[in-house]
């Protein structure tokens, strides 16, 4: 009876996660150790993510007569879109503790909007389409307790993204030409249950998502024959830190499994899939 109640709790929890009104970023996998002591595994995964970010920084302008004093500026990035391809190498330190490193590439696409007083929109830099750049990170998983086919555990992973910069235009000014550079890191901390069935498992739970980084913007335009310049540097942070995720994992061969998952916060969502090969 205790086991059936625990399974019911897991199913209800995962149903709540997957019906959340806001679908973040790199796939996390089950929140538990999965390899076993002295076992190795490689994981090839893909993720699609969208997230909203807040930026605070300084902007300075040169209207043709020298640089003006810098002004404090707020920006917002809405629905930053990224495709991410990662490969990871994991090792089982013991039966209840895994660690892994990962590397890959990711791109970015979005607009950057300046926020004026009272929440009004100012300059909107459009068409950011950064090429693929380096992504790398590390993480760990641990099992805290096991009750039959139900395990409880947690995970931590940190990922750095350095996508190639992209050119942008300025809405309402066809003469404007600019470039934007983004780099940021993400931390994901999750905990929850994993319910094992014959040949597949269900996992999920709540998680925290932190984003920190930098944006640099430079551009120029021509007005009445005078070249005008703008430069901006801002710090990036997430709009929402708390969310939930859920996933399914299938055993497709003796030491090969495939998984798919979704992640949600109120300002970000992501879908991911991957294949794990143990050896």
Question: How would you characterize the overall build of this protein?
Answer:
It contains 1 helix and 12 strands. Residues 1-24 have low confidence and may be disordered. It has a single domain (2-278), classed as Lipocalin (Beta Barrel), CATH 2.40.128. With 279 residues, it is mainly β. It is elongated, with a radius of gyration of 22 Å.
Which SSEs are present, and which pair or pack?
Layout: H1 2-18, E1 40-62, E2 71-94, E3 97-115, E4 121-147, E5 150-162, E6 166-170, E7 173-196, E8 200-223, E9 226-238, E10 242-253, E11 256-265, E12 268-278
Antiparallel strand pairs: 1-2, 1-9, 1-12, 2-3, 3-4, 4-5, 4-6, 5-7, 6-7, 7-8, 8-9, 8-10, 10-11, 11-12
CATH architecture: Beta Barrel
- How much is the average pLDDT? 85
Which descriptor suits the 3D outline? elongated
What's the number of extended β-strand segments? 12
Q: With helices defined by DSSP (H or I, 4 residues minimum), what is the helix count?
A: 1
What's the order of the H and E elements?
HEEEEEEEEEEEE
User: Into how many domains do the coordinates divide?
Assistant: 1
Structural class: mainly beta
CATH topology: Lipocalin
Largest beta-sheet characterization: 12 strands, antiparallel
CATH class: Mainly Beta
Radius of gyration in whole Å, from Cα?
Answer: 22 Å
Proportion of helical residues = under 10%
Q: Which residue ranges are poorly predicted, with pLDDT under 50 across at least 5 consecutive positions? A: 1-24
Distance between the termini: 37 Å
Strand content: over 45%
